[in-house]
DNA sequence: CGTTAAATGACAATATACTGTCAAAAGAAC
DNA sequence: GTTCTTTTGACAGTATATTGTCATTTAACG
């Protein structure tokens, strides 16, 4: 059976497929950027969140779109490796605040330096203007997909 | 430490983040589209690949960018549910060809019909022209990321 | 042919992620 | 202040994905 998609629907379907494929490659690239420091994309994300501001595990989960449990698992690994520590939270007895250690800051800086080289090269290739326009559409799609509920079964 | 990114590098970094976020939402939407049929995005992908042309598990893995083991696991589930069957392969004794059963074709058609409604609505909202332009950049990024090796550790 | 290399499916082990549940702690309502 | 709801971290169970290994089969080479 053929699907009865409109031209715009066809265009969006092709767009979605290409976005999913690109995301896979970006994920791999992120892991590769983090790997020399012994980290992964997920650990890098948590490090960056904790560096931006000390926050609880649950806070980071919300900020990163991850489950609390997933962030907790990553954070425990980071603590074991001495990259973060759990600082007392004056506003909450149980919800300790994640904070980067010097070692954690160094690891994050090393990853970010490598990411800068990588992003600069790709930005040069693709062109700032085209990237900005595509980003605009991607964000519009993000908001539309969030709003648009899937047709009921 | 601040990263020393160029304006184009900044633009690409923001682009990458938005693409990753959109991909997460698209993945969820795909699961939601497939769920009423008792399927998932991964099972839908394998069904669609087998519908496009009878192929072995390893072929589907390559086509979908999945590991053969992952596809094998999904395919075994699909066979158990009667959506596909393993047909003899005249060119290879062990590598059976996946083929959709009538039940599998019906499930795929149901998912595709729901996907069409969803894609048409989003295509309408975002506009065919903008989607096409963004897709062009996404594909260019795809090729660039594939070529661009990550800076060595 | 005969030998070697590559591909394939099966299987196991591990890593990762998500869901659900629970008790402790904090906040809200009254 | 007391009660009820929400949040948070911990834990278990399950599902999924990846990696590695193995025997069998196919293809490539001479």
Automatic annotation (TrEMBL), chains A, B:
InterPro entries: HTH_MarR-typ (IPR000835), MarR/SlyA-like (IPR039422), WH-like_DNA-bd_sf (IPR036388), WH_DNA-bd_sf (IPR036390). PROSITE patterns: HTH_MARR_2. Pfam families: MarR_2. Transmembrane segments: none annotated. SMART domains: HTH_MARR. Residues 12-143 form the HTH marR-type domain. This is MarR family transcriptional regulator.
